[in-house]
Amino acid sequence: MRNGVNGSGRATAHIRFASVLAIACCLATPAMAQEAAPAAPDETALPAQAEADSAASVQDVVVTGSRIVSSGFNAPTPTTVIGDAQIEANAQPNIFTTVSQLPSLQGSSGTQVNTFSTSSGAQGLSSFSLRGVGAIRTLTLLDGQRVVGANVTGSPDVSLFPQLLIKRVDIVNGGASASYGSDAVGGVVNFITDTRFKGVKGNVQGSITDYGDDESVLVQLAAGTSFMEDRLHLVVSTEYADEAGVGPGEFGIDLANGRDWYTQRTLVNRGVLNDGSPQYVIRDFAQSIGFTKYGLITAGPLQGIAFDQSGSPFEFDYGSNGVPSGNAAGTVIGCFAGFCEGGDLSGNVDAGRSLKSGIERMNSYGRLGFDFLPNNEVYLSLSVSQVKTNNQPINGQNRPNLTIQCANPFVPASVSAQCATAGITSFRYGTSNAALGNTQVSTDRRQYRGVVGIKGALPVGGSDWNYDIYYQHGTTYADIDVDNILLSNRFNQAIDAVMLNGAIVCRSAAARASGCQPLNIIGGNPSEAALRYVQPEQGPYQRTRLSQDVIGVNFSGSPVDLWAGPLSVAFGAEFRHEFYRVEADPYGAGITNTPNNADYPFDPVLLADGNNWYAGNYKNGNGAYGVKEAYLELDLPVINSDAMGRANINGAARITDYSTSGTVWTWKIGGTWDLPIDGLRIRGVTSRDVRAPNLSELFAAPVTTTLPNFFDPFQNRNILALQNSIGNTELRPEIARNTNLGIALSGASWLPGFSVSVDYYSIKIDDVISSIGAGQIVDLCFQGLVPETCSAFNLNNTNGPNFINVQAFNLASIKTSGFDIEAGYRWVQPLGLPGSFSVRALATHVREFITDTGLPNTVPADSAGVNLGNTPDWKWLATQSYENDNFSLLVQERWFSDGKIGANYVVCEAGSCPVSTSNAPTIDQNFVPGAFYLDIGGTLNVTEDVTAYFKVDNLLNRDPALSPFFSNPALYDMLGRTFRLGMRFKM
């Protein structure tokens, strides 16, 4: 497990980084004389047109998103293209980072997201989200073909793709289900590989942050050649990358390696709705009154006695001049409900979250193609990839609301005496369990994928018809292992210690018989035997196998010439089968469901139906579904004249039959019009798109997540509760309506090198598959708004742990709209200098992002501009670059606008607040700043075949903005200034 280096290890980190650069220099020798042949345009790519390759090189606006293959065809759906030159200039260890910086990609995951999670299985998963509607509503393709998912949501992991052979990435901003099938609601991201690469090329890179951590190594090598008079083509690539990650910090507020921006900002619920003051207040340096690092008595006459690591008692400093009331409720006079400000912060646990998961990835790829006729090829591609990640979700394993007997032999004698004086036999106790160590989560995803196909063009009926027929099989094995985590019931038995025959033992005879060892949580000195009892060496695990089989048949041609040009037709069919199986450890899944073994012996103390771990209670499950579909797409030219310009109407329809939910239709209708004004084009398209429920939503193995500080409004207290997430086989597909309208200027003879486009988009998704959050379920019952939710939880369970059941339904809807703006200019020989100067800017404005839960008496929430989420009001990316035959320079700016904490909050001051409600809660501040990041980079051509390069990301070392929930890695850079150096070579 790597969590970055500590401050004293910074020198070692720099030595390792220097070693990487030395390796790069050795590998990139100038003995490479043969230049790699340029890649030929791939006419089966998305878009199905050769112009996209040239468009990528000059950064023109490209229109795409169709199955039509026809010279000069332009589809009405706007598309952004990232070419290999841009990928190289951004110099990231993972191409995912380069693509996800585009403004229209909002809410993508990656190694800085999901680091706070124990049970999600999404740690380190690199998946795209277009328009902020989620990775499950964005279709990611490799050479126009689906890729098996990397977890049960079906989202692929881009880290597993053969990155050095990628020559461009097409990002379709809009619905494309009629052309490409399910999931293309937000759009499509398609990676196009160079299938005809010749020569050898490589890349070696190293990086490190300004804080001496997240050291990374990247080594890539690709080769291609041809045989049999250029009819047999072979390309291969291999890649190794290792990014150490960042984290964790210390207990309290100290982050990893000297980062000083964290202040334990907290959204405090005062629990009072109508006293003229805001219900919610934002406070820095907040501390829980429910636990400390090594233990705190939290209620009753001894409230406020804390313990140091040695177990010695001392008077706890609550901050806020807080004074413990000594009552049974455990309130602290002068503090908020549950929190104080300042004082002793040493027990706070949030700083222990990893800021970035460590990730190690390896992949190998090969493709063999044989031209049995000119422009006709039979091919086979194989890839084997592995990605390992690790993270620490949080420090400690905090347990508030424990009950400790005064007679417990680990309780200091002075405290036992105070118990006797106060006339009590037990006290309420809370601890972050620092002595138990910190939980670590590791994932291992292995993917095996093969594609065999035949494609090309043949004359039929006097015109050429393109065809593409393929079979794809992919299998992903995804393992999750959690280390250093306690078994809750064993913990409860172990802390209940007594003296028996002069020895300290567990009170329960049954627990003693099954191996219980008494655990001292008064301070921080538990015995090794007690630690092994409550935290066995073999922790929770999940073993998942996913498989995907796809047979696709696609044809495209122009069978007839009409008054304005050829009628173009595309049609085809696809069959897809998706399967998954997940197996979990018996302590999480259920002891009765899995044969006992040495690592998980039967223990009567534990619950037979599982849910025994503090977190990571994975379950067993399996499921499968099949998809049969067929589509037809037509492009009808309607105008072709000098006076009126050139216009076409493009339409498509697809019928899809899901084995789980029946038949659904998708369609699109749109068109483009090249106006008689040179270079000016208008376009528009509207479509009906679909996302079918995925394997996880349909057949989810119940996943249990621990909520250690869940607020119980019925008793006004924080409790430990379990959230059980379960599947629903009755789910229906989500139905979306997409509309895009735009205007573009490109290739005008009167303004050479310049392009600009403005597009309006609107997406409305109905029957959205969503789950009501655990807090919502309880609050809706507590306020009497939805009595049906009252049966979904038990927060006062005497027969087992408190729990809330969370299940997905077709309840909600999402509506979002906004504008995309893209502009570029390329100036050849600027001011008479050799080379070229290029400027490119992309921006997205989110006008609205309204989510309606579908629940009665609730108000739809507009999260546009909510900077705790994924959709800021404005987000843009701009680059300026100069290049010539000797060197290049790059300046890049990334920015998003100021935002707010939540859309429905009412900001007010004490004495002037209206009554706070669930739909319009009052708050004292509702602001989260945006951010501006400046990156610089450059290259130097050492020889004709060797190029050295550098990149500095976040040059100004901008810290992330704080939020009441730590910070938001979906928007902000959590790492700080990062330096990258490397060399590329070819021969």
Automatic annotation (TrEMBL):
Pfam families: Plug, TonB_dep_Rec_b-barrel. It is a multi-pass membrane protein. This is TonB-dependent receptor. It comes from Sphingomonas qomolangmaensis. Keywords: Cell outer membrane, Membrane, Receptor, Signal, TonB box, Transmembrane, Transmembrane beta strand, Transport. The keyword Cell membrane does not apply. Its main location: membrane. Residues 456-955 form the TonB-dependent receptor-like beta-barrel domain. InterPro entries: Beta-barrel_TonB, Beta-barrel_TonB_sf, Plug_dom, Plug_dom_sf, TonB-dep_rcpt-like. Residues 1-33 form the signal peptide. The lineage of its organism: Bacteria, Pseudomonadati, Pseudomonadota, Alphaproteobacteria, Sphingomonadales. Belongs to the TonB-dependent receptor family.
